[in-house]
């Protein structure tokens, strides 16, 4: 009986690793000539493996079962809104399937990992492989930073050398893989720094510095901005006193105003790199920066044909999510024959990238990004459903500040581009959140056992 149970645990942890590898490495393989179709295999294997685990696992702990059910109910709510929006807006079934998977694949994988009673040797093995995968990405990116400039590592077409420092997420210049790769490296390094305290500090700190170096050398400075904003938001969530919260907000606003005035009015050498942007005539509520970044909120409503569109949007994949913005453009010849539908709003917003020089100089000004896309595709109802699903993870799965920091900084990244829909990044976050949750459950079980033994 015991042997049978152990076999089941090993089998499930192996399945989780296989699913993770299918998400983590396909771009690396395609950059060396593997067919592009393998980039889509995770849409089949990750849900299939996750559903298999959820249907076959026999977890007895009530709290664990309730947690998994909460996540699944949240996913069902998102699915219902997505389908309703698709029906009203006549979006294709392919749109429903792909958009739903882009948004919830990581949540399904997280539910499967939480359902498995990971412990002991199988848990250690799982953690070891997850961390090795992430370390492999970091080491490869560092190697690329040296080998690409001297021509030893093959440079994909498109983009600068910095754009192609992508670790295992190589997808060619302009694919934003450098952002995904360095974000995964930083989350991994931070997890390792905070949770492997038996390892010498210089090794843990060295990994963290290496991840920061990867961000810098891959020209992904917006990741620094998102991480800083995520940390700032995390600090705000920890303030319990409303008066203190008001003081913090007023202080942040005052510092912002003072910095803005200094950048606009002082001529100091140290400020010149920042004044390259601040001195341009692009600011203000009706300036070029605002009109470019928030173009989706101006263009999408122009296609609304009824008040219902304000509630449920223009349909999945019809605006500026990763599906509507990039996947439909790059894989149009493959998806349209399968029944995918393309909305003119996507192309009209993408045209802004061609018209305005700002998005081509910095992706911070890109008008296509996840939060605008979820709102555009499924309206305020869909946006609320997705936030509700995220809130379940925030309240029930995040056991420490690391988890909350990852969620908040990823949410900030969703205001810049569509990193919130990158499977490799999101499933890595799901892995780390689940690992931390299981680690805490192990500690709690050990404490309970210790108390029980003392009382007896």
TrEMBL record:
The chain crosses the membrane at residues 9-25, 37-55, 67-87, 107-126, 133-153, 176-194, 245-264, 368-390. The keyword ATP-binding does not apply. This is Uncharacterized protein. Keywords: Membrane, Transmembrane, Transmembrane helix. It comes from Acaryochloris thomasi RCC1774.
């Amino acid at each position: 009986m015991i042997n049978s149970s152990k076999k089941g645990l090993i089998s499930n942890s192996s399945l989780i690793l296989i699913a993770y590898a299918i998400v983590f490495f396909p771009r690396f393989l395609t950059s060396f000539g593997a067919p592009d179709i393998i980039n889509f295999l995770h849409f089949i294997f990750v849900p299939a493996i996750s559903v298999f685990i959820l249907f076959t696992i026999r977890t007895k702990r009530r709290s664990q079962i309730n947690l998994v059910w909460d996540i699944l109910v949240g996913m069902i709510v998102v699915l219902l809104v997505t389908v309703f929006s698709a029906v009203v807006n006549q979006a294709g079934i392919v749109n429903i399937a792909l958009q739903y998977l882009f948004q919830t694949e990581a949540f399904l994988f997280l539910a499967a990992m939480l359902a498995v009673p990971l412990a002991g040797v199988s848990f250690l093995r799982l953690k070891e492989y997850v961390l090795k995968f992430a370390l492999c990405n970091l080491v490869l990116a560092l190697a690329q930073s040296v080998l690409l400039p001297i021509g030893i590592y093959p440079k994909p077409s498109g983009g600068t050398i910095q754009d192609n420092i992508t670790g295992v997420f190589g997808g060619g210049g302009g694919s934003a893989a450098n952002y995904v790769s360095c974000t995964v490296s930083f989350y991994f390094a931070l997890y390792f720094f905070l949770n492997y305290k038996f390892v010498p500090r210089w090794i843990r700190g060295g990994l963290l510095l290496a991840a920061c170096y990867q961000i810098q050398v891959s020209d992904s400075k917006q990741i620094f901005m998102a991480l800083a904003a995520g940390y700032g938001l995390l600090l705000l969530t920890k303030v319990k006193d409303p008066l203190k919260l008001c003081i913090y907000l007023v202080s942040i606003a005052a510092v912002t105003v003072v910095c803005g005035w200094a950048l606009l009015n002082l001529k100091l050498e140290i400020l010149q790199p920042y004044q390259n942007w601040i001195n341009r005539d692009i600011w203000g509520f009706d300036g070029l920066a605002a009109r470019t970044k928030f173009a989706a909120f101006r263009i999408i409503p122009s296609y609304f044909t009824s008040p219902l569109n304000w509630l449920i949007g223009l349909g999945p994949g019809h605006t500026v999510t990763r599906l509507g913005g990039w996947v439909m453009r790059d894989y149009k010849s493959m998806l349209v024959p399968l029944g995918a539908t393309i909305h003119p709003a996507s192309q009209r917003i993408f045209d802004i990238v061609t018209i305005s020089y700002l998005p081509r100089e910095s992706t911070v000004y890109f008008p296509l990004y996840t939060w605008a896309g979820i709102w555009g595709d499924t309206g305020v109802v869909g946006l609320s459903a997705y936030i509700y699903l995220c809130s379940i993870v925030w309240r029930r799965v995040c056991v420490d500040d690391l988890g909350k920091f990852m969620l908040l900084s990823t949410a900030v990244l969703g205001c810049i581009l569509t990193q919130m829909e990158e499977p490799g990044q999101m499933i890595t976050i799901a892995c780390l959140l689940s690992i931390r949750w299981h680690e805490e459950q192990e500690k709690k079980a050990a404490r309970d056992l210790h108390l029980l033994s003392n009382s007896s």
